[in-house]
Design goal:
Layout: H1 18-40, H2 42-65, H3 76-86, H4 94-107, H5 122-133, E1 141-142, H6 145-150, E2 157-158, H7 161-168, H8 174-179, H9 191-203, H10 210-229, H11 237-242, H12 246-252, H13 264-284, H14 291-309
Antiparallel strand pairs: 1-2
Helix pairs in contact: 1-2, 1-3, 1-9, 2-3, 2-4, 3-4, 3-5, 4-5, 5-14, 9-12, 10-12, 10-13, 13-14
Length: 324
């Protein structure tokens, strides 16, 4: 009989133990981490390490205070730390990253009861807190070192592809988005690195294929509608899928079985609406990116979606209880 493993995102129903699954996810995140270090240097490395250590320390402290078993070796806190770091710009201050990590683990997971009981994706909740607390710092971007070196300087301030699209109506070439030669958060640069990790998780059977596919499909369809209406103003669907946090969100966040619906119909509702929200926020909202808000908002609706898409149990009548 299959055993439901309750752990930090992503979550899976499998006979494998938490330790094995979490360390497989960590392995799947390594290409994205390596790409961020290649493009942004030691800043990226220090940011990733800081978030990991802070997340593990916070989990240890909360579990000790609550006299709960310490589980920092299962890898779930490491994943939260990596995912949080990948949502941050390379120049983000380390002290602020520590604070975001404390919020991600403390308020995002432990306050709800620990592993598997969280309502929201912990890494995204930590990122949302930092967005509110440090709006300038978290929207300060720098060009990849590869571009800065060509210009003969150490670093240069830059706009992300989504910001260029929204505010200057400039479209970044698809190849730059695919390989990562753009400004952005650590996990917003190299789409191909994230795809490799996501496909590895799918190969291992650790993610539900309909979640990333449905998320991408929704973004492509709704983004494509705007593009067909006015291709001179709005970007094509492929741009939407490659730019910003869509790749990281699709492969490593909407695959979270605790904060996303468990019913097949509910899962489709989640990813379709989330993809729609991404496009609406990007093209019609005040912010250039909508992945974080789309997932967190749908996380909040997950219990309601589960409740109303749950298959009726045989013998369950309209008056409540069992029919005689």
């Amino acid at each position: 009989m299959d055993r439901l493993v309750v752990s930090s995102s992503p979550h899976f129903s499998t006979e494998d133990n938490v330790h094995k699954i979490m360390h497989t996810v960590i392995l799947a995140l390594l290409p994205a981490c390596a790409a961020s270090i290649y493009f942004f240097g030691l800043n990226a490395l220090f940011l990733i390490i800081t978030c990991i250590v802070a997340c593990m320390a916070t989990e240890y402290a909360f579990q000790k205070i609550r006299s709960k078993p310490v589980t920092i070796t299962d890898g779930s806190a490491i994943i939260t730390g990596i995912l949080l770091a990948l949502t941050l710009p390379p120049s983000f201050p380390l002290y602020a990253a520590v604070l975001g990590s404390v919020v991600a683990i403390g308020l995002g997971k432990q306050i709800f009861g620990g592993l598997g009981y969280n309502i929201f994706n912990p890494a995204l909740l930590g990122r949302a807190f930092l967005q509110a607390a440090y709006p300038v710092l978290i929207t300060t971007w720098s060009e990849p070192l590869t571009k800065a070196a060509k210009q003969g300087i150490d670093a240069v301030s830059a706009a992300t592809p989504l910001a260029l699209m929204k505010f200057e109506h400039k479209i970044t070439p698809h190849l730059d988005l695919l390989f990562g030669n753009t400004a952005g958060s650590l996990g917003e640069t190299s789409a191909i690195a994230i795809i490799l990790g996501g496909l590895y998780l799918r190969y291992k059977g650790y993610i539900n294929w309909k979640m990333p596919l449905g998320y991408f499909g929704s973004i492509a369809v709704f983004g494509g509608i705007f593009w067909l209406v006015n291709p001179l103003k709005y970007p094509d669907p492929l741009f939407h899928m490659l730019a910003g946090g869509a790749m990281l969100g699709a492969w490593f966040m909407v695959t979270d079985m605790v904060t996303t619906p468990t019913t097949p119909i509910g899962q489709w509702i989640f990813v379709i609406v989330a993809g729609f929200l991404v496009v609406i926020i990007r093209l019609l909202g005040g912010l250039p990116e909508g992945v974080m808000y789309s997932i967190l908002l749908m996380n909040a609706f997950t219990p309601l979606i589960n409740r109303h898409t749950r298959p009726k149990v045989f013998g369950e009548g309209g008056q409540g209880g069992l029919t005689g």
